[in-house]
Amino acid sequence: MKRLVWILSLAVWGAVSAGESPRTLVESGNQAYEQGKYDEALKDYEKAGATAPDAPEVLFNKGAAFYQQKDFDKAREAFEQSAVRSRDPKLEARCEFNLGNCSYHEAEAKMQEKPKDAVGELAKSVKHYQRAAALDPALHDAKHNVEVARLTIQAIQEAMKQQEAAQEKLKELKEKLEKLLAAQRQLKDKTEQRAQVPPAPPAPPPPPLAPLAPEQTPSEAAAPLNIEALNGLADEQKTLKESTQGAAQEMAAFVPPAQAPQPVAPPMRPPEPEAASPVAEAKDHVDLAAQHQDTSEQGLRAAKSAESAAAQASAADELKKAIDLLNNPDKQEQDKQEQDKQEQQDQQGQEGQQGQQEQQEQQDKQQKNSPEQQEGEQQAKNQEQKEQKQKESQAGQQEGEQQQQEMQAAQEGEGEGEQADNVAREILNEEKEHQKMLLTPAGGYRPVDKDW
Question: Domain 22-138 in CATH: superfamily?
């Protein structure tokens, strides 16, 4: 099926005025609209509308924002007011086009529950698209959407016909099963009544009874069985079984009511897994009823009336379950929803209890490990202090070595200075001796008299 075309292009304000003009507000709203901020866009459009309440462009853009928020009632109202106030055929055509889209969305919401109302909304959308095409022949998407809406109407009408035919067939199946149920209950009563003949008039004391066979009950051994009557009941049971099997075959070929077509507009929703239809569930019970009927027939032919009556009761119960499912097809879905809801609540409760338990365990663990944590912190602190002392000791040791090296260097310097002084003294002494030798005359000094 073709897909609908959605057109929500914004109108641009044509007038210019000073300050925070309607045009400025519309442009600001259009920017917010393009960014998906429809609430902000509506605020700007509302401000512009307060200054120019009859401006069709503002009304059109408000409708577009409401449309994006899926508030189709307000969108419809805004588009209608814009179309009434507009003097531009193209803008009016766009209003009609979007009014058609609003009607189409209304139809989507009613396709499943109220298909007739959906057809009415689709007819409205066709009229809007046709008016849009008449106002603006260049708006080819309007003609396209007319075709899409008409195809959707045809699909819904066809589905409605199939639903009516299916409901009629379902009614026939229920009537057939009700007749089978009544016949099965009647046959059960006959089996219980005719399985044994009344005892004979009083007679001479009979000989002692023979031991009971393993497959016989005391009641069956106490009185003679009417084999001919049991065979007749077996034939009736066979006929009922064949009728039940025929009903099961009809149910297997039964086509459930067709659902109305899903909306063709984006976003496309993923298909949900289909649950078993009530007819399919009812057929399972009918199949079980046929199996019990076959057991009953075999038991009657083997003269086991008690077992046959029990099988007939089971067959009647299964037929009753099948009829209940067909009478209330929504009950299964309701039960499933209630079961899912209950399971969800139970799961949430279990998760809450588990979360509380984990939180309590964590708190207990924290409390339990508190002394250990304190001890660990103290050890870490001691280790840090130890490392700090080691660093200080290493620094002091390095400083001592440096001072020792400086002292050694100083001592070496002092030794070298003393050695230099000794060399200098020796040189001076040698020089004095040399001068003394130079000043002494040859032959030496002669003593001089004191009285000279």
Answer: Tetratricopeptide repeat domain (1.25.40.10)
